[in-house]
Amino acid sequence: MAISTNFKIASRIGKMARNDTVTSAGTIDAAGAVVYDSAGVFPLSGNTVGDTAFTANMGDSAREYIFNGNGWYQINRGS
After folding, report:
1. DSSP code of 4?
2. HEC readout, 8-76
3. Closest by alpha carbon to 17, among 54, 42, 44?
4. Which helix (DSSP H) or strand (DSSP E) does residue 7 occupy?
5. Torsion region of 14: left, alpha or beta (phi above 0 gives left; psi -120 to 50 gives alpha)
6. Is residue 53 part of a domain?
7. Using an 8 Å Cβ cutoff, are 61 and 9 in contact?
8. What's the CA gap between 59 and 24, in Å, rounded?
9. Ramachandran angles phi, psi of 72, nearest 5°
């Protein structure tokens, strides 16, 4: 049985919540991985290669991105 992308993302966020701090605003304060409303608000500076980010709003939900040193790229939604 294939594991869905949504399950993979939820598992990663769950690990971050267990290992890091969830802020009073409900955001995850994790080193290298942050949840944003949309990809349009990802930071353009101060990133490290390998940083990951997740999007949370309805128009851009269940997507994971990685920073490669030049910009943010959506990780393939393969099964």
Report:
1. P
2. HHHHHHHHHHHHCEECCCCCEEECCEEEECCHHHCCCCCCCCCCEEEECCHHHCCEEEEECCCCEEECC
3. 54
4. helix 5-19
5. alpha
6. yes
7. no
8. 25
9. -95, 135
Do the domain assignments include residue 79? no
CA dist 38 and 18 (Å) reads: 24
Q: Is residue 40 part of a domain?
A: yes
How do residues 7-64 score in pLDDT, each as one tens digit? 777 777 676 666 555 666 666 565 556 788 888 889 999 888 888 888 876 666 668 8
If 0-12 CB within 10 Å is exposed, 13-18 middle and 19+ buried, where does residue 33 land? buried
